[in-house]
Write a structure and sequence with these properties.
By secondary structure, the chain is an alpha+beta fold. The protein is built from 19 helices and 16 strands. It has helices at 15-20, 76-85, 102-110, 124-138, 161-172, 197-205, 210-218, 221-226, 271-309, 314-321, 353-369, 397-404, 425-444, 462-479, 484-495, 499-508, 513-520, 524-538, 545-562; strands at 27-31, 42-46, 62-70, 90-94, 114-118, 174-179, 185-188, 232-234, 243-250, 253-262, 326-338, 374-378, 381-387, 409-415, 419-421, 454-457. Strands 11, 12, 13, 14, 15 and 16 form a six-stranded mixed β-sheet that branches. A five-stranded mixed β-sheet has the order 1-5-4-3-2, sandwiched between helices. A hairpin with a 2-residue loop joins strand 9 and strand 10. It is globular and about 85 Å long.
């Protein structure tokens, strides 16, 4: 039966609430003989091979994940009946290609335990995490003068954002707005006093005015808000009273924000503390609000990838991504690295949670930057599709500046040439990726302590990107050849010598020994000695134009391999 003894409860959030907080399409309800209003106590893994205790209702109120059991398998009915005898609220099995057998559906209808199936594309670890997170978020977490009940927080119905805004307003003694990450108003509290001009504009337009969003972004306020779990102060100005704001986040994912403004009287003394509590309490409500949009968000991101990859159904993908079919567009690519991990120069190492959080900030900045700006992720890369205004040459310049300002992280960001229409997006994306590679390879030649965020547009590094393209084509051929340069590189690798670095510095300095020696931090005589020995030991004679060309190509390829940046 379950892998651990549960904490038994007679009441708790319902199965319907739990399922309402996970992404649509993850689980399907096949049969629910008692409906989906049954209370759930916990979510645990179920081991069909474990010795059972049929007398004790060991699984009472649990959702059991029957790992390894497919609904069409012979043991499925036995697993269902065991769960039913133990009082489980539900049992989840893998759906498979054939779906449940009629006998299993009939057995489920005769029992009390709901039968659910896990769809392909969602692993058991993901399902367990989502269900347990939903269980925690469905539990009462924010009490007011009303009693907290299983249907929401503080007596509120789950998803009642207006009720939440009014409740928080009573606690902070001010006016509340709840906004999504794109600064669109999801709910606001009742108005007991005349709102200030900014609140009036925001409520009437159902979103923060675009010029105000630009101000908040350019001043760094959004970056501060999305990067902390605490309350952030927005001082008063001639258009609005002071605001307190806090991000509502689920793990590293930003769900939205709560804003409090003085409403004809000073905010309560404990307003900041109340907002911190409200941010935690708002998670299940905003999660519920976003649940039915998550599948659409996933489809939108897939559509962006399809556009950038040059899929044949570009018009449909543009519709799914929510962008106009006509251009022009710019494509920006950004990579984030934790500067404290020392992996930025090589592009190595697994992407960490903090690096993903940087991409979260950049994605939020992009969403707030311009209507129609859409993003998609791939590992530690963020792709941004930016609609360009007529006659605009560099629509992503502001976003590039934002990428440079992220603290404690190194961000390499590049923008491809403008695409006149959808058909030009793949080429713009490829060019933007090349720009990022140029910036990363430049960083690889620097000491780790000197590596900083860098950004560039394609037109600024055309020569460098052309060299990358040439090396990408030449590298497979180079590995099949042999000669003086190959011998020198292999000797350096085996013995830790620096003949190759010395030759490369000499070539980069156009034969200026003094300049090359300073770059290597050695005496000019030391450099001359190394160059002479490279000629004597390996035949690398820099007086020969052919050898110079081969040395330049071979040492560039050796350097990119040493830093793991080849063809990426």
């Amino acid at each position: 039966m379950p892998t651990h003894e549960p904490d038994r409860r007679d009441t708790g959030p319902s199965l319907e609430q739990i399922l309402g907080l996970i992404a649509p399409g993850m689980l399907d309800v096949v049969v629910a003989p008692r409906g989906t209003g049954v209370p759930v106590a916990d979510v645990v893994l179920h081991d069909p091979g474990e010795e059972r205790d049929d007398d004790a209702r060991a699984a009472s109120g649990l959702i059991l994940l029957a790992v390894g059991v497919e609904v069409a398998s012979p043991e499925a009915i036995d697993v269902l009946r065991d769960a039913d005898r133990a009082g489980a609220a539900a049992v989840v099995m893998r759906r498979g290609s054939r779906g449940p057998r009629a006998a299993l559906v009939e057995a489920a209808g005769q029992g009390r335990t709901a039968l659910l199936t896990r769809r392909p594309g969602h692993g058991w670890t993901e399902v367990l995490g989502r269900l347990r997170t939903a269980l925690v978020h469905s539990a009462p977490a924010f009490s007011t003068t009303e009693s907290a009940g299983p249907d929401g927080v503080g007596g509120l119905r789950l998803g009642d954002l207006s009720g939440l805004a009014n409740t928080v307003a009573d606690l902070v003694g001010g006016a509340i707005t709840i906004e999504d990450p794109q600064s669109r108003v999801l709910a606001y509290s009742r108005m007991d006093h005349e709102p200030d001009p900014m609140r009036r504009l925001t409520i009437l337009g159902q979103e923060v005015p675009r010029w105000r969003v630009d101000e908040l972004r350019e001043s760094g306020f959004f970056q501060a808000l999305w990067s902390t779990d605490d309350v952030v102060l927005r001082p008063a100005d001639d258009r609005s009273a002071a605001r307190l704001a806090i991000a509502v986040r689920h793990g590293s994912e930003v769900l939205g924000s709560i804003w409090a403004a003085a409403d004809g009287r000073p905010l309560a003394e404990g307003a900041a503390a109340a907002l911190r509590t409200a941010a935690r309490a708002a998670v299940p409500h905003l999660s519920h609000h976003r649940t039915w949009g998550r599948a659409a968000a996933r489809a939108r991101e897939e559509a962006v990838h399809a556009l950038l990859d040059g899929a044949a159904h570009a018009s449909q993908a543009a519709h799914d991504a929510g962008i106009a079919a006509e251009g022009p567009y710019a494509v920006m690519v950004a990579e984030a690295y934790d500067s404290r991990a020392g992996g930025a120069a090589s592009g190595g190492g697994a992407d960490s949670g903090t690096e993903q959080r940087v991409l979260d900030v950049l994605a939020l900045q992009a969403a707030a930057y311009r209507p129609g700006c859409v993003t998609a992720r791939s590992g530690r890369r963020l792709y941004v599709l930016v609609p360009a205004n007529k006659g605009e040459a560099d629509p992503a310049r502001t976003l590039l500046a934002t990428a440079r300002s992220v603290p404690r992280h190194v961000v390499f960001a590049g923008v491809g040439p403008l695409a006149a229409d959808l058909s030009g997006l793949p080429a713009s994306r490829e060019a933007a990726e090349l720009v990022v590679r140029v910036l990363r390879e430049r960083a690889a030649r620097l000491p780790v302590a000197e590596v900083v965020s860098a950004m560039a547009a394609f037109g600024e590094v055309v020569a460098d990107t052309s060299v990358l393209r040439v090396l990408d084509r030449v590298e497979p051929l180079w590995t099949s050849l042999s000669g003086p340069v190959h011998a020198m590189v292999e000797h350096d690798r085996a013995h830790g010598t620096e003949y190759g670095a010395s030759v490369a510095a000499h070539l980069d300095a156009f034969g200026d020994t003094g300049t090359a020696a300073r770059r290597l931090n050695v005496h000019p005589n030391t450099l001359r000695y190394r160059l002479r020995r490279a000629r004597e030991l390996f035949g690398v004679d820099l007086a020969d134009p052919a050898v110079r060309l081969l040395a330049d190509i071979g040492l560039r390829i050796a350097a990119r391999r040493a830093h793991g940046s080849s063809s990426r």
